[in-house]
Amino acid sequence: MLIESRPCTDPEIATLVLAQQRELRAADGGLDGQVTVTHDDIRYLAVVANGRAVACGGLQSLDATTGEIKRMYVRPAHRGRGIARQLLAALEELAFRQGHSVICLETGTYLPAALGLYASCGYDRIPVYGEYVGNPYSVCFSKRLPVAA
Question: What domains are defined for the chain?
């Protein structure tokens, strides 16, 4: 397994993001309706196994000190193998290298595996922020990254 940087225009990233968004719509009963595609300002990492991207996650800068994890997704056939945990650690490293001291993210109340993953990786629940304010299904987390010596 390899974790590598991919551009937002990468067709495998686009396919994974679309699958993630469709799965979210199915999980939340289609409450939001619109499928979101990749954004130019998100830096993506892909987990590659046997030459194929099986997972992705992105990092978007909110400001000079804060990054937001976006579009975390592991193909269903590859879940339960620790891929999401490794990808999350790689995204944290990317955020650290970009100078962020805090990383935050949003997930849904209807995603118990995601809630468990983030809590077990040291993320603390925080009040909903930004575009998530007012969404009763949003759960937000943050984590302070280590400071360079």
Answer: 2-144 (3.40.630.30)
